[in-house]
Amino acid sequence: xxxxxxxxxxxxxxxxxxxxxxxxxxxxxxxxxxxxxxxxxxxxxxxxxxxxxxxxxxxxxxxxxxxxxxxxxxxxxxxxxxxxxxxxxxxxxxxxxxxxxxxxxxxxxxxxxxxxxxxxxxxxxxxxxxxxxxxxxxxxxxxxxxxxxxxxxxxxxxxxxxxxxxxxxxxxxxxxxxxxxxxxxxxxxxxxxxxxxxxxxxxxxxxxxxxxxxxxxxxxxxxxxxxxxxxxxxxxxxxxxxxxxxxxxxxxxxxxxxxxxxxxxxxxxxxxxxxxxxxxxxxxxxxxxxxxxxxxxxxxxxxxxxxxxxxxxxxxxxxxxxxxxxxxxxxxxxxxxxxxxxxxxxxxxxxxxxxxxxxxxxxxxxxxxxxxxxxxxxxxxxxxxxxxxxxxxxxxxxxxxxxxxxxxxxxxxxxxxxxxxxxxxxxxxxxxxxxxxxxxxxxxxxxxxx
Length: 450
Ligand code: S3P
Fold this sequence. Notes:
Elements: E1 9-11, E2 18-22, H1 27-37, E3 43-47, H2 53-64, E4 68-71, E5 77-80, E6 94-95, H3 100-111, E7 116-120, H4 131-139, E8 143-148, E9 154-161, E10 170-172, H5 178-189, E11 194-199, H6 206-213, E12 218-222, E13 228-233, E14 242-244, H7 249-261, E15 266-273, H8 280-287, E16 291-300, E17 303-311, H9 332-341, E18 345-347, H10 361-371, E19 375-379, E20 382-386, E21 393-399, H11 405-416, E22 418-424, H12 437-445
Parallel strand pairs: 2-15, 3-14, 6-7, 10-11, 21-22
Antiparallel strand pairs: 1-22, 3-5, 4-5, 7-9, 8-9, 11-13, 12-13, 15-17, 16-17, 18-20, 19-20
Helix pairs in contact: 1-2, 1-6, 2-3, 3-4, 3-5, 4-5, 7-9, 7-11, 9-10, 9-11
The chain binds shikimate-3-phosphate.
């Protein structure tokens, strides 16, 4: 799973981007489609599944715990599940590669099964904090042994010894995290009684939507302050489903920003998920002056979807309200690139969570953007960026991707709007979430070897 071969790549000034592309499946929804199908008795079918390394790590783990998962020749995936409560003891450690979502959600699933699993991952994942899921899952009765990490954190490799029956929990999320929310809910699936997650700040709701779709008894109540109370009745029976995975808005984000920044661009991005808990970047870029139209709005697999028409635009810097951060949490690296070419100043704050993603995305973006000549100041919880007003960045430097797919793709797009090429030390991580990123980019810029 973990690729040890570094693949450096240079990205340079691009001709106008033109044409139509279809974005691969949503990563968050793909993970959940595999996990939940693996908990249904009978055969589920998933089309549009993202076939990136992260999602394939989830598929391998579910196979190791008893599910049968196969890709058909037509590209659809067929999953024969084991039933809620039916996960089997895997024979070897579960290799999560680079994937925090696989790790945290599967820790939740395992926590309420009478099995013991060891989780391992690559260097990036092994530095990420797991205490945030260990705390609630331990309160439910699981026994979890982790490796001590930097600053007293708990990290991979770790071992989860699940418990049956686990104790239902009412848990107030201490940070805005869909992964923590989902880990507790998934532990609650095989737990008697009601498991409740209290979510003061709404985060992506794909778990709630899809759990209901599979037949779970799940309710969501929102109080006058916007706090969500998500209640799940355990010992659920799942009915197999046919799932169509919409395109990933977090992947579309790179092409949205590329088309806005490269002069003369005019592109159509088909089949993009526009779930309100994910669409923050689209709204923000429109506020900055971005010409983005939502066409053919529809529902696919219980999720809102649209085709996006994006045209080159002069962007204006903004002060970003920290309240919208959860709805675009994975999009800040590419927003920072957009801000570096906007007219005026963009100020972001309240982004502490960005420091514990696949890399410290505040520090890594500040360093890389400064290296290619952008005017950027790092603060404890965000960046302040003074844009060029549409002028290309100087470029002409090599930046480090830090095993972080979104950092690599952000600097690839920065290279398209730089005078001298931007080199990325290793673009291999892009295949964790967007295996055909380069091919789509080449198809839009009319390069022959797409
Ligand atoms: C995800 C939740 C987010 C996001 C990640 C995917 C999910 O993480 O950054 O890429 O699928 O639940 P956090 O829960 O850590 O914010």
